[in-house]
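QA checklist item 7 of 12: single-chain prediction sanity check.
[x] sequence parsed
[x] length recorded as 716
[x] structure emitted
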Amino acid sequence: MLDRVLNAKSVAIIGASKNKTKRGYQAIKTLLADGFEGDIYPVNPKEDKILGLNCYKDITQIDAPIDLALITTPARTIPGILKKCGEKKVAGAIIIAGGFRELGAKGKELELEAVTVAKQTGVRLIGPNTSGMINLKTNMNLVGIQNPPRGNIALLCQSGNMALTLITEATIRKHEGFTYYVGVGNESDIKFHEYLEFFRNDPETKAILMYVEGMSEGRKFLQEAHKTSIEKPIILLKSGRSATGKKSAGSHTGSLAGISEVSKRAFGRAGIIVIENSDELFPVAETLSSQPPINTNTIAILADGGGHATIAADLLSDYGIDLPELSDKTKEKLRKILPEAASVVNPVDVAGGTDSDPSLFADCAKIILNDPNVGGLLVVGLFGGYGIRFEKSLAIGEEAAAHRFGTMVKKRHKPIFVHSLYSSYESRALDLLRHYDIPVHDSLDISCKCVASLCKYGKFLKSYHMKTNFVFNWRAKARKEGQQIIEHAKQEGRHVLLEHEAKQLIKLHGAPTSIGQVAKNQDEAWAIASKIIGNREHKESVVLKIVSPDILHKSDACGVKLNLSSESEVKEGFQQIIKSAKAYNPDADIRGILVAPMAKKGLEIIIGTKIDEQFGPVIMYGLGGIMVEIMKDVTFWVLPVSPASCKKMLEDTRSSVLLDGVRGQKGYDKTKLRKLLLICSELIESYPEIEEMDLNPVLLYEEGLDVVDARIILKN
């Protein structure tokens, strides 16, 4: 269906106008001027002709099939017009007007009405609150931006101004352009993931560039992105990181905004290249659409000055990119063609060797790219400007080098990047580089960002088989006993599992935990405790905890007693907990007291899961105790997770160094910790009824761990 919408062969302009300031006029004028390959049908009951085209009173009066309707009329008219579009069997409609959910409850109601009509009639919607769309392949420009450049990048954008910025930048750079532009708007019907599927299957689209303010079906987007990224790169900038940004985004699109740690990491796991600086967005997209990925995470620098080389090396190092040592053979070859003062280590500094013959750059590049340790080359400095700064005749050598650069990339499948101070000047050599799709920038920062993005994408492709596809196999590993525990709670009208029930459930899936037993009175409590004290060699005490579906936070109700080792302590503790619980909540349903072994001291860990409104089930990991309360040193990941994901989760926290041991202390059992994270992922996949799960604390030891407390909340 999207093919008929985005590749429409006939367009009706509903709200066509003779007023030159109106979209209904501008759209027709642009379609005619650009030579749209399809048919154009103006619709306006008050006009007979507009720009020489017959005008129709109603879309149903058009005696020809209509693929797409551009609706430029006010928001209140939209539901009625969509009914007419449905009668005409129009495939899709672009709704330009704002005034929907971005304006509040009344607008939300109107948008829902429009979407309902569209679903009933089979009309797919772009928008509302959109700038429109452009198909550069058929010259279908329904935005009005003058002369957008054609290329191989598909642009999805929730801001008309941002789209204008990116298209203008592409025009000025006179290099890569676009296959399509779609203003997604409120994403009320056609979702981001549907566009991804379409562009993945479009042979002329080589990369997908996105500006996102919010998305309604984040998990489906991740699933589709995961399938798309293996075939073509996705580059994304998401706004709304700050509180002010969130407010602005919300008023503009009415969508969930804000780039949380959840979304940032999830996008990366799906292979998406996340950009946080708008100035880097198009250069990175341009690079990824034209250059072979770097799967070795290695780059060499070729410079005609030490300053630029040093800065580039620092920037690449900050991005985690390796500058490998060149082989002895490579160094030897470089020494033969460069002056004695030149540096032939990485970075390579020609030390004036190119001043009289800039074609020497190509000789050096060939030698360096032949080195098996090198995945790509960054040329920094004055290349492209020798004929401008020094002598015009030197431009010939630069042009020859540029030709050879282009040949090298195609032959070796190793990218070349050029940073040139003369990027904005008229330079035949730099134009030749652009002709060969070699990125040229006047900013070292942007050049290095492009290198880093290509390395990141190459790393994703290399490890694709280890990545999760964000798809759950619901209940595949559910246990019968586990399902019975959940059903029992639901039958009692509870949406919270009691602590011992929660522990029983996680233990069924392999989580190490001491469940304990529930005592109804103090004598039962001591009978249970005496067995624990007597049978555990290194545990000489027990813990008592209140068991009540009405008391979730036991400590608040003074419902926990620690380190009890005698009959009197246990019995007195039992009475005190019962008394405190009744005082805390007189109506509480008290099921008894849980008696369990007192855990030995270890490193406190917290693991939790919840339902994110954008991405569905997510998992949180971090160090517990003061770390989580004060430092908030935690990481969130979208479920399910893989063994590789679990390893990265541990590394994501600032306090991860503690796991390896510090100041002579032994480290902790990371293997068992990673296994517990996988168990938590399995639990959520096995039991969709779980809303939240909280394992806190988990005590981690040099060998093994112990889930000391577990809380599971079920969906209502």
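[x] summary fact logged: Confidence is low (pLDDT under 50) at residues 247-259.
[ ] second reviewer sign-off
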